[in-house]
Records
---
Amino acid sequence: MGSINEAFDDRYDVREFAPGTDDQGAPDERTRAWMEAVGLGFHEPYPSDATAARMAAKFTEDGETFLGVYRREPTPGSVDETWPVGTFTWFRKELSFGDGAAVDTQAISAVTVRPTERRRGILRRMMTDALRRGVEEGYAVASLTASEGTIYRRFGFGSAIRERAVRVRRARALPLLAPTSGTVTMVTPEWLADGVGKAVFARFHERTPGSMVRNAGTWPVALGILGQDGEPAKGVRAAVHRPEGSDGPGGTADVDGYVTWRVVEGSTTEDTRIEVVDLVYTTDEAYLSLWEFLLSIDLNDVVRYGRSRLDDPVVAAIADNRAYDVDHEEDHVWLRVLDVAAVLESRPYAVDGSVTLAVTDALGHASGTYRLDVREARGTVTRLADDVDGAGSDLALDVADLGALLIGSVSPVTLAAAGLLRAADPATPLLLRAMLLPVRTPHGITYF
């Protein structure tokens, strides 16, 4: 191996390209090699020919831009002769602030670096190139979901939404403390896939802060048609909720929630459980009714849901709140501000007020001093200086922490207590918290 200080451009070639297919619909040679490298990075086998062709078509449908970092002089016989040693992609994905307000983000995914090429600046080069292109393409913010929690803050990303994997024990959960309303009906995943599922998600997305639109390839998995491996799913069931006064079991427009799930058989040491695949709701009534339905299904011990929001109302609704257990909590959506004025002016606000922000950005995209003025729920941002005037501002923070605050699920008061936000007046974090308060609890249920 060469020195880790070897010049990047002498050793590597960075190539940006759009995914493509051959005349048979299969990934072309360059796209297939890139996909092989991604599979290696995430320890996944290469998919079947049919699945690979479907994936390539979805990459194109989503308008993805691929980056690959290639060895200029690969070792003969190594995969490096065709495969990139680093992979990266981005595409447009809308982030909802709730009640119709939204901003397009530069969504980043499929980030890998070959173990033999670590600590040579590959990730930094891919990220800095991509964010520069994001600025050129007019994005106000970049987004990602991460497989590891310690990688992306150095590039200016802040953890904006956290989620929990929870389980509820059936025997102690029912009856719920308050009656639910409406009707739950079992349907087939295919019926959901015929437009109903997407229509419900569109309403969930519009009203839910933190929601992000889904990749084309996500839908068959979420609706129970395909498994994570791209092959036909087995044992996935589906149900929908309709509110009181709807037009009956045959109607589709009034469906206000759905759930897909599978039963996983236990063993002598494990519970038999219902694993929720996807749970989408447009009202609290639909959410609780679908939970009540899942908890009523016989021949299992627990219902497990991997994408619960932190203030899950099920905790308060079930008969014994100790039947609700948190298995795991972690970061979900990370945001990286590229244009402070554009992104702060894109979201709604709860109360009027004015604050001056000094934003530090090691990559330079968002550095500066800004004044945010909010009147009648809308914000106006004035750039006061290109440099960071920490002493003359109300609040000083890193761009990563601005991203964490953006949706309103992370409090400025919390960041001040953590030493990540400096306030000239202790009352200012309280004011900013009130200004950023979202219309509903942020809830992201989409990975990418």
---
Amino acid sequence: MDSSPCSFASVLLKWFEENGRELPWRETKDPYAIWLSEVILQQTRIQQGWAYWERFMQHFPRVEDLAAATEDEVMRLWQGLGYYSRARNLHTAARQIVERGGFPQTFEEIKQLKGVGDYTAAAIGSIAFGLPVAVVDGNVYRVLARHFGIETPINSTEGKKLFATLAQELLPKSQPSEFNQAMMDFGAIQCAPQSPRCLLCPLAETCEALRTDRVEELPVKLKTVKVKTRRLTYVYVRYQGETALHRREAGDIWQGLWEPLLVSDSPQPSNVNLPFSVEGTLTLLRKDVKHVLTHRILLTDFYLFECKEKPTLPVGYQWIPESELENYAVPRLIELLWEVVASPVSHFTI
């Protein structure tokens, strides 16, 4: 079988025509809807992201609506998706688009939007405007590394240049949208990370990894980030139907989201030392709740402190009616605390 760029593209496009995923953001050329889907689907499975995309499109059908929203409204709608900087960047970029009078239509101008890198700009540009720019993401790295037997690490400077150049060479200039989407779907469905469908693959005859029995070894990725463990201790302070909340500041995880009283944040376990002296009942709700982020593992203890008198809260904390908690955007870990506080299961009084 011919392994030329033209043949590779034609085989891939034929596969996509028969096997491509039907997704709502593929039924439009609206750059706002396409951009929204690309941002939501970063680090997110399509099944989960689909519901969020529909929710955002319902609440903010136009980029002007998103730009006019408050940060709290955006973060609340994003809650549960994680990687919250994406939501902040999305909000900032919406305002950039409105300020410039419309969605940018060139690759370089699209890249000027907050939070938009080469991949997202290429996806938006090719799908919405037909720009002949190849996308390169995890799926593309995997397909190209396996098919062409490339052992250069995908997260090295050399590897990034090599794969970007190869993807661009393979891209048919007349069908950039279809080719880019074909590469995404082929990597997700056919050439999957685990258990790829090699026996039924239309590119099997020209796949170097299959020929040399290296499918499981490719692509190669350098291990560069050490995962650290961080221990948190939260106390849900309750007094006559109110609780204490604090908005997290910039420079750490969950920027802009809300949290209850944080009494300890360290690599090692520590005692519960409340920042006020009032009588009350301290109850352990959950211990060592594990929550995994990209570069760290969180082990969290949850407590409930029911006050007999109203304490003065530390700077930055405020009293919030418990009935209004759903109006405050919180990380998934804190959602779990809300669920535990509301549940009737037995706890341990300290």
---
Amino acid sequence: MAEQHEAIVIGSGIGGLTAAAFLAKGGLRPLVLEQHFLPGGNASTFRRKKMFDFDVGFHYIGHCGPGEFFPTLLEQLGVADRVEFLPMDQDGFDTLHLPDLVFRTPAGWERYRQRLQETFPQEAQAIDRYIDFLITTAGRAPATRRQPLRELLGKPASRCTLAEVFDAVEASHRLRHVLAAPSGIYAAPPSKAPAVTHAAVVNHYTEGAYFARGGGRSIVEALLSVIEGGGGEVRLRSKVERIIIEGEKAVGVELASGEELRAPIVLSNADAKRTFLEMVGEEHLSPDFAQRVKDYRMALPLFIIYMAMEVDPSELGLPKTNIGLMPAYDIEEQFAACYEGRFPDKPSVFMLIASLKDPLSENIAPKGYTNLQLLSVAPAQPQAWGVSESPASGGRYRHTPSYLAARREMEERMLGVVEEMMPGFIRNVVWQESASPLTQERFTLSTGGTSYGLEHTLDQSMSARVPYQTEVPGLWMAGANTLFGHGYAGCMLGGRTVANMILQQSR
């Protein structure tokens, strides 16, 4: 017997939960189906040693001040009081360590400009042009007394890569690496990254960086309370095998168990390739759109080391900052190695220390302990990890000697960079485990194990991404593959947008 619902949401990632929450708030009772045993997708949290909560994807966000995006969205859902945003060090929320300099990224456009010019005094004009370009591109008031960069670029910003902007402003090799440091947030090198994507990311954090009290679980729990309070439901361990198409319309889903669930609205927060090519089926797509989905390229994935040290955060001697370790001026070469299926010799490492940002929440770490993560971009190919088949295709990997050796090699390279650039920082380790792209694919079913969805390139940006309302009537999309991209801001903005579109058509 097919069970009937008002709306079905496939996947409980942050985009799907946000969409479901707004649907519930708008009067539709959504059923959220999650194949994992925890809700949240990349926004989920897992616990180790009954002492440490590790966030999978919540590290820091911007636009959390009064009246800004995140508080406003939560207020619209009636749960603003459930999430407390903690400011990071506004004079240096990111601290970059390069071979011959340390740069602290401050909040505020003019403070950022000034800090860059103090560090690179010979490149004041290049920095002025670059900052003015970012401010204008991000939708802030354009500078009126400086030469518009459009004249130097010779084409619209929407058609420029970040590398082309660097060329136009005549930034030096060293300066480019400081300016490109946020590239890890969207996993694309300057030669590929759209300048507008980079501008949006820099703008997001330059307005101020924040962490949530207790970690990202507070946001997930707030959204779950809206869904359940509105009569909706979240079912775990419920993998969707296919989207049921009848009369050329999406009318429900079939689970891996064989159970059928029906609804006039099906919203997928799942990977776009899996949604259309596996769950819908190419036979239900137009040839042009099917080919477009096949041609989509996924962003590079991450390798993450989760770690706990028996060290009080106050003993680290650091403010509430993230640490970016770039052992060489070779950003393009590092990305190229990953694209080719190789580990970088000395990978750049992003260190996120939750205990610094929120030292009072004992779910993150008890007093006297430090909870931290080390992240680096990594190859997506299963062969790079010692296996021939990905877990989503049925491949086994976790206990194979070749996989364990590859994972250990990546761990050693990353920890070697930390020891080289911050000697003795890693100490008294009481817990350590790693998540490879294969881990990510096993838990989220994302193609290539990416956390970022579609690769951020000029030919896959803006309207070239997956539309919220698909060509299949009754089928909608949310998540990292859609217009606003990945991350909490992109996915939550997209989730609210698609929910409002559905509600408007349902009235």
